[in-house]
Amino acid sequence: MIRYLAYIASVIATLLSVWELQFGQLWWWGVLVFGLLALVGTIDVLQRDSTLRRIYPLLAHLRYGLESIGPEIRQYFIEKDTEEAPFSRQQRALVYQRAKGVMDVVPFGTEHDVYRTDYEWINHSIVPSAIASHDFRVRVGNLAAQPYDASVFNISAMSFGALSANAIRALNAGARRGGFHHDTGEGSISPYHRENGGDLVWEIGSGYFGCRDAEGRFDEARFAESARTEQVRMIEIKLSQGAKPGHGGVLPAAKVSAEIAATRGVAVGQDCISPARHSEFSTPVGLLEFVARLRHLSGGKPTGFKLAIGHPWEWFAVAKAMHETGILPDFIVVDGAEGGTGAAPAEFVDHVGVPMHEALMLVHNTLVGLDLRDRVRIGAAGKITSAFDVARTLALGADWCNAARGFMFALGCIQSQNCHTDRCPTGIATQDPRRWKSLDVPDKATRVFQFHQSTLHALRDLLCAAGLEHPSELGPEHILRRVSPTHVGSLASVYRFLAPGELLHGLPEHAVFRSFWPDARSDSFAPPTRVQSLRGSKSR
Questions:
Q1: Would 73 be classed as within a structural domain?
Q2: Helical spans, DSSP H, in 100-202
């Protein structure tokens, strides 16, 4: 109730001022001032456009007032903050504008230092193209019985439990309107995912939530029952996530309500454990056999896996298993180390895992080198919020992009960093019904839809300017980067890309392949002998 104190105080002060007027006291100014505040607070409580104003009547205007400070003062605070903060604010502002359907054009030209090292751009053509539709799609699962035509921009994995019921409802309703998919996260398919009928990618994590028996083991019958429903379009096995790879997770007992317990298939009021590794397989070949098993049990739906790249020899082991067994995933989602999470140790957030660009290129290059790239699709996730982010990611080798942060901004996230406290001020990352019930589902679903549509409209405009017809035509030669004050190169020249089949005919001139490819084994994730020998004779 503390968040309502300012509003309640204004109402009480208004009533006291009116009472004093009855006795001839000159409290008309109190009626005017406090009455105006009470009126604003009442409007805040009743309106549905802003969840923050509904949860924090009157107090929310302090934040909006600070946001409206002129550009000079705002820039002062930005410059005093960290280097990452300006980027975050600019990207969040762009998402807000597009989600709200506000014009997102910029006056006075670029605010970026175009001579700064790492500045990137896309070159334009003298003969721009004309693309009629912005509904860009890619077919996933050419070998599956039920292939899926996925949008090139979708909602990344965020579980019910991490997000509130109304946040899930709004995301899925927006996905249905826009015809793009919504990844369930490893928390399984909740009733709120099903209400609005948007396309789902069911993520199966190491806890096998929604498809587990009483002991936490994978349950084929429970999996098949949910996987064969029409709304589930693809199956994704989660090996690791970018924000905390190799860590696993715990949903504390206090947060495991009857609703979450029923969704995940766990006991009410007990810690809900996500182990750091899977129990259904322990080798690269075993992983691929599990992929094939889930594809069969789902009735032939596209099935793949998501991973954050860590030890390169482990990914090479999976790739060799694909080549040797002929068992292929329909897709692989590469999750960058810069991905977000509701809570993780600082060391994992900042210093574990490979960033998305390098991880994506490693996966793409390996599949190209094995002549498998045209048979396996690649999705990518990691701080993707704008059309240029999408274009650059596709140019580096992805077929589609997933985003979590951008769609959370569209819901109204203000990055208060209270995701783990259950006190999210916007009703998004909380299970407190006093907060999440204030999130208006129809309004926020519209914003999710508009953000997706506006981003793809902008992507279409970029493609037209570059003289291209479809995102699949984007390559590393289209994106330019300033690599030093005096040198500019396309990503094709900055990075080394393998030729089709190159790994089948020899060892490429590429350090990571030369170091780890020869000794990677399809029957084990263990480090190669060469890696073990580099450790020397350290004693424990």
A1: no
A2: 165-178, 191-194
Between CA 299 and CA 269 the distance in angstroms is 35
What's 317's domain CATH number? 3.20.20.70
Return the HEC string of 343-380. Answer: CCCHHHHHHCCCCHHHHHHHHHHHHHHCCCHHHCEEEE
- Does residue 517 fall inside a structural domain? no
Choose the final residue of a domain: 64, 87, 115. 64
Condensed to tens digits (0 to 9), the pLDDT of residues 50-76 reads 776 777 777 776 655 545 544 433 444
Residues 273, 367: contact at Cβ < 8 Å?
no
> 270 pLDDT exceeds 60?
yes
Q: Is 143 found in the same domain as 49?
A: no
Question: b vs e for 455-471, b when ≥16 Cβ sit within 10 Å of the residue's Cβ?
Answer: bbebbbebbbebebeeb
Residue appearing with tokens 């409580």: 45
Same domain, 159 and 54: no
pLDDT per position as a tens digit, 199-251: 999 999 999 999 999 888 999 999 999 999 999 999 999 998 755 555 566 67
pTM recorded for the entire structure:
0.85
Q: Which residue has the higher pLDDT, 487 or 34?
A: 487
Model confidence at 329, pLDDT cuts 50, 70, 90, reads very high
What length does the chain have?
A: 540
Give the DSSP letter of residue 254: G
Residue from 319, 474, 499, 493 nearest 396 by CA:
474
Same domain, 30 and 169: no
Domain count for the chain: 2
Residues 60 and 199 in one domain: no
Residues 141 and 57 grouped into a single domain: no
Q: Token pair 């083991």 is at which residue?
A: 217
41 and 154 inside one domain: no
Tell me, yes or no, whether 459 and 366 share the same domain: yes
Among 484, 516, 533, identify where a domain stops: 484
Q: How far is CA 102 from CA 167, 176, 372, in A?
A: 22, 22, 43
Residue 450: pLDDT over 90: yes
Structure tokens at 318: 């999976």
List the one residue out of 509, 510, 476, 472 whose CA is nearest residue 492: 476
In one letter, which amino acid is 190?
S
506 is a domain residue: no
Tokens found for residue 93: 């502002």
471, two tokens: 């995102």
H or E element that contains 289: helix 284-297
What is the 3-state secondary structure of 369-425?
HCCCHHHCEEEEECCCCCHHHHHHHHHCCCCEEEECHHHHHHHCCCCCCCCCCCCCC
Domain hosting residue 7, numbered range: 2-64
Asked if residue 150 and residue 264 are part of one domain, the reply reads yes
In eight-state DSSP terms, residue 65 is: H
Whether 338 contacts 383, CB under 8 Å:
yes
Residues ≥6 apart with Cβ < 8 Å to 85: 78
- Is residue 502 in a domain? no
- Six-digit token string for 525: 């994730």
Q: Would you give the distance in Å from CA 8 to the centre of its chain?
A: 38
CA torsion 139-141-144-145 (nearest 10°) is: -20
pLDDT band at 46 (very low <50, low <70, confident <90, very high): confident
For residue 7, pLDDT beyond 80: no
